């Protein structure tokens, strides 16, 4: 699987936020209880998602979190880079001999792995929350 545990949990939590009416924030406690998610972990992820402007917080007794963008404007790449900082990459380390597969510099596979990484990034950037959630509803 190309997505991390962090991304998987973030998708589940964002799915719950997406189901909320736009004017009704959802608290982390309620979200986690209703979706069987680990609260401390989701709090950490929400801090990262908020820092990346994917969600926003509402203060007060009826506060919580809301999506900060439309589902159609949030890509899987946005989520992955918010919670993981990096995207999956190939096995090439630029000829640094850090891998048992390394052939040294110049590496004949370097361009290949660069293309693979770009294609993966473009693919993740093309998938929106809207698309993911519409597939889940089928």
Largest sheet properties? 2 strands, antiparallel
CATH architecture classification name: Orthogonal Bundle
Strand percentage = 5-15%
- What do the pLDDT scores average to? 86
Class derived from helix and strand content: mainly alpha
**Which fold name fills CATH's third level, the topology?**
Arc Repressor Mutant, subunit A
- What separation lies between the terminal Cα atoms? 22 Å
Helix content percent band: 40-55%
* Broad CATH class: Mainly Alpha
What attributes characterize this protein structure?
138 residues; mainly alpha; Arc Repressor Mutant, subunit A; 2 strands; 6% strand
Could you write a compact summary of the structure shown?
The protein is mainly alpha-helical and 138 residues long.
Any chance you could write out the topology, listing elements then pairs?
Blueprint: H1 5-18, H2 28-35, H3 39-51, E1 55-58, E2 64-67, H4 76-84, H5 110-126, H6 129-136
Helix pairs in contact: 1-3, 1-4
What can you see in these coordinates?
This protein has 138 residues and is mainly alpha-helical. It has a single domain (5-136), classed as Orthogonal Bundle (Arc Repressor Mutant, subunit A). The chain contains six helices and two strands. It has helices at 5-18, 28-35, 39-51, 76-84, 110-126, 129-136; strands spanning 55-58, 64-67. The protein has a two-stranded antiparallel ribbon with strand order 1-2. Strand 1 and strand 2 form a beta hairpin. It is elongated, with a radius of gyration of 18 Å. The protein starts with a helix and ends with a helix. The model has no long low-confidence stretch (mean pLDDT 86).
């Amino acid at each position: 699987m190309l997505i991390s545990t962090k991304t998987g949990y973030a998708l589940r939590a964002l799915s719950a936020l997406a189901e909320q009416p736009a004017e009704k924030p959802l608290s982390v406690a309620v979200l986690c209880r209703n979706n069987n998610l680990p609260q401390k972990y989701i709090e950490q992820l929400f801090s990262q998602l908020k820092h990346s402007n994917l969600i926003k917080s509402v203060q007060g007794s009826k506060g919580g979190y809301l999506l900060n963008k439309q589902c159609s404007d949030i890509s899987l790449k946005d989520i992955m880079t918010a919670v993981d900082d990096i995207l999956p990459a190939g096995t090439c380390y630029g000829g640094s001999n850090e891998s048992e597969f390394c052939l040294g510099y110049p590496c004949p596979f370097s361009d290949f792995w660069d293309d693979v990484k770009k294609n993966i990034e473009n693919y993740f950037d093309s998938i929106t929350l809207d698309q993911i959630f519409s597939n889940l509803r089928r």
